[in-house]
Amino acid sequence: MVNEIQEFDTRQWVKVRSSLDGSQTFLTWTGSIYSFVPNEKKKRLFNIVGMSVSRCIENDDNTWEFTSRELTYYLDPNTNEILHKWENPWTEETLTVIHVANSPVEGYFKGNFPGQVNGDITTFVFDLFPTYPNSLAEDPKFREYSPQTTYQAAELFKLTVPTEDLHNSEKLSVSKMFICWDRIGPWLPWMKMGDRPGHLIYSATGQKVNNFTDLPQLLQDEINTRVPLYKNAPKAPLDDDMTSWIYFKKHFDAYLAGERFPIPEAED
Fold this sequence. Notes:
Layout lengths: L3 E5 L1 H8 L7 E12 L7 E15 L5 E12 L9 E3 L6 E3 L3 E10 L3 E6 L2 E8 L2 E3 L16 E3 L1 E9 H5 L10 E8 L13 E11 L7 H9 L18 H7 L1 H5 L12
Antiparallel strand pairs: 1-8, 2-3, 2-14, 3-4, 4-7, 5-6, 8-9, 9-12, 10-11, 12-13, 13-14
């Protein structure tokens, strides 16, 4: 039957996002980021390339802990080279680029997960709308960077897998997983846009890969030489999630000093 919504249990969902045996799995994505400003034509500001390394840990009550680390690099939209400095086209100021380096990103899986079954493939759809107080707004020194009192965004995910893998009890992880990710979010703090109206539109696609060596070479090089922490997922859940806003606050002095990001991080 086409477009039939079926419920899948937590173990089936864990096979999609990671693996049932607690081993780590890799996800990678590429895409573009556009400006969305009232009464202006869109600008393609950046291309992006990113990765996540994750694992799921089973609890005694059929729930699962999800723990991961993720990187996303902002690239020149014409050359796909990593941007370390960016000229803001609205303010003409040259700014230090802070790439996404979130460790950890965590979750908790329980219950059932609806999937849209189309014969051989099943797609899981997650439309998320995070809204919470912006911690940067409390400090006057961040007024030029992120003065909004509320962080508000939309994260739209679609994860597509082979239907048979979900029902095959011998498979610990799906053989293929393709992801579509769209995001509507505020200006990034390092862009120094203040209260200028507008948003960023993200459009990206990606897939699960078998090994670290299957990641794009740019990511392998960066992880091997600068941030080897991101070669492995945490072995157990860590503290609160890292976000780009928290990372900006933590490394604000390095940003002002024009250091290269991400800040190097050694393996555990």
